Fold this sequence. Notes:
CATH superfamily of the largest domain: Replication Fork Single-Stranded Dna Binding Protein
Number of strands: 12
Order of helices and strands: HEEEEEEHHEEHEEHHHHEHEH
Shape: globular
CATH topology of the largest domain: Replication Fork Single-Stranded DNA Binding Protein
Radius of gyration: 22 Å
Largest sheet: 8 strands, mixed
CATH architecture of the largest domain: Alpha-Beta Complex
Amino acid sequence: MTTKSREKTREKVKKKAKKSMERGGNQMLAVPEGTSFWAPSKKKHTIDILPYEVTAKNHPVADKGEYWYQRNYFRHFNVGVDNKAFICPKTIRKPCPICEYVKELKNSDSEEDTQLAEDMKAKERSLMNVIDLEDSDKGVQLFEYSYYNFEVTLDEEINEADEEDADFFFLKDGRTLEVKFKHKKLGKNTFYEAASIDFNERDEDYDEDVLEDVYDLDQLLVIKDYETIQKTLFDMTDNEEDDSESDDSDSEDKEEKPKKKGKKSSSKSKKSEKKKEKDEDEDSDEDSDEDSDGDDEEKGKSKSKGKSKSKGKSKSKEKCPHGGQFGVDAGELDECDECDLYTDCEDKRMENEDE
């Protein structure tokens, strides 16, 4: 990596860390057989974080072909009658039916609905390639953890560290991370939360051959399409779909809500029912925070927010408010993440590609 390239990447690492601090057993990961997962198991660990070559165009920070150190994503739990889990499509800037429904539940007067919303809302996770220097025989391991219990602290330390420490994941002149963890308890769950991270000079550089062993973090994510997630969310079996097609009376009003642990879904208040049609045309907006191995409320971290829109909204405004080209530049501008027209713009772009 050239000096110029190194400086450019270093600046991006620092920028990402600063932006992060300013912001407020499943089939989700397609891991190869025999994948070794690393997780903290004591109060102190020394690890090296290694880069991987970004292969996705929709990485939230890095460009395709660039070497980067992490891939974050959002996931939902407790979805549908079988309490399944899904990676949230907003991870790749796509609309998510779960996020839309969570917003609806939050507007309900029912405590059961608001609790269900809390259980189903998206939680942010981090993926990294690490080598545990105290167990180096295992080679490169996959580190999948709550964003709030590791990466928040990493970003804090990057902001306070020397400029060269932002190169921590480089193969040459990188840094070994000495991480001190706190053992915490939340309800019945116990977990480790990074308390501090020191950047130390590595004993030796890594050869480029190690890149053959790292995981392509982009390709690990299994993100289902909107319709597939929606079917699970509303427990829409094939028989139920057939029945709804043969019933001509009020089919839209008979759409079932997600069921939790085999029970019937909670009843909606009249106020919530009246808001339903209006909410379907508004942006979906949900908080994202910790999951079972983390607690951002105790850390006092701000929550990440994303926006997603209902598919039913009409496409009446076909002009990009940020100077881009509607139906062409979807996801290419920094403002796309917060744009109210993003979903319409993305749909238009896909229509144009099909044509």
